[in-house]
């Protein structure tokens, strides 16, 4: 992963604005549009959350968006959510190579996907860090 983008921000800014969005909410295409708007705004870091079916550590808003993203994915029979999340990052990297992008996930989806495969795909997509 490219920590240089994160290092740059932490070295040159006192205050950092990080915004979060749930991958696939309300649907895949809207996620890309929302992410592009955020990347083009004055945020410093974009955090994209991978929806999880049992998000007990999250508050009601993230729980709700996770459930709706999973529902949308199941209804539209799109590719797996982790793959879709990396597709969003790849799309963003076509137009912005400077802003750090973090991916947030519970361990269970990463473990089921494969830790090595997840790390490799995250790096290829242009992810800067994992929460």
Q: What keywords describe this structure?
A:
131 residues, alpha/beta, TIM Barrel, 4-stranded parallel β-sheet, globular
What does this structure look like?
- Pathway: Amino-acid biosynthesis; L-tryptophan biosynthesis; L-tryptophan from chorismate: step 5/5.
- Keywords: Amino-acid biosynthesis, Aromatic amino acid biosynthesis, Lyase, Tryptophan biosynthesis.
- The chain has 131 residues and is of the alpha/beta class.
- The protein has a single domain (4-10, 18-130), classed as Alpha-Beta Barrel (TIM Barrel), CATH 3.20.20.70.
- The protein contains six helices and four strands; from the N terminus they run αβαβααβααβ.
- It has helices at residues 4-12, 28-39, 60-76, 81-93, 107-113, 115-125; strands spanning 18-22, 45-49, 101-104, 129-130.
- Helix 2 links the parallel strand 1 (18-22) and strand 2 (45-49).
- Helix 2 packs parallel to helix 4.
- The chain is globular and about 40 Å long.
**Could you name the CATH class?**
Alpha Beta
Compute the CA-based radius of gyration.
14 Å
How many domain regions? Answer: 1
The outline comes out as globular
Uncertain segments are: none
In the sheet with the most strands, the strands line up as 1-2-3-4
Fraction in beta strands: 5-15%
Output the structural class: alpha/beta
Number of strands: 4
Superfamily (CATH H level) name: Aldolase class I
What is the overall pLDDT average?
Answer: 89
At CATH level 2, the architecture is: Alpha-Beta Barrel
Output the CATH topology: TIM Barrel
Pfam families: Trp_syntA
GO cellular component, one term: cytosol
Enzyme class: lyase
Keywords: Amino-acid biosynthesis, Aromatic amino acid biosynthesis, Lyase, Tryptophan biosynthesis
């Amino acid at each position: 992963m490219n920590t240089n983008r994160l290092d740059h921000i932490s070295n040159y800014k006192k205050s950092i604005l990080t915004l979060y969005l749930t991958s696939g909410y309300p649907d895949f295409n809207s996620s890309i549009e929302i992410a592009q708007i955020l990347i083009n705004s004055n945020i410093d870091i974009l955090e994209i959350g991978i929806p999880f079916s049992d998000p007990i550590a999250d508050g009601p808003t993230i729980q709700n968006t996770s459930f709706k993203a999973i529902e949308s994915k199941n209804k539209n029979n799109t590719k797996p959510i982790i793959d879709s999340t990396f597709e969003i990052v790849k799309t963003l990297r076509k137009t912005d190579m400077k802003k750090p992008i973090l991916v947030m996930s519970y361990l269970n989806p990463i473990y089921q996907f494969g830790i090595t495969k997840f790390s490799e795909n995250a790096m290829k997509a242009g992810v800067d860090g994992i929460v």
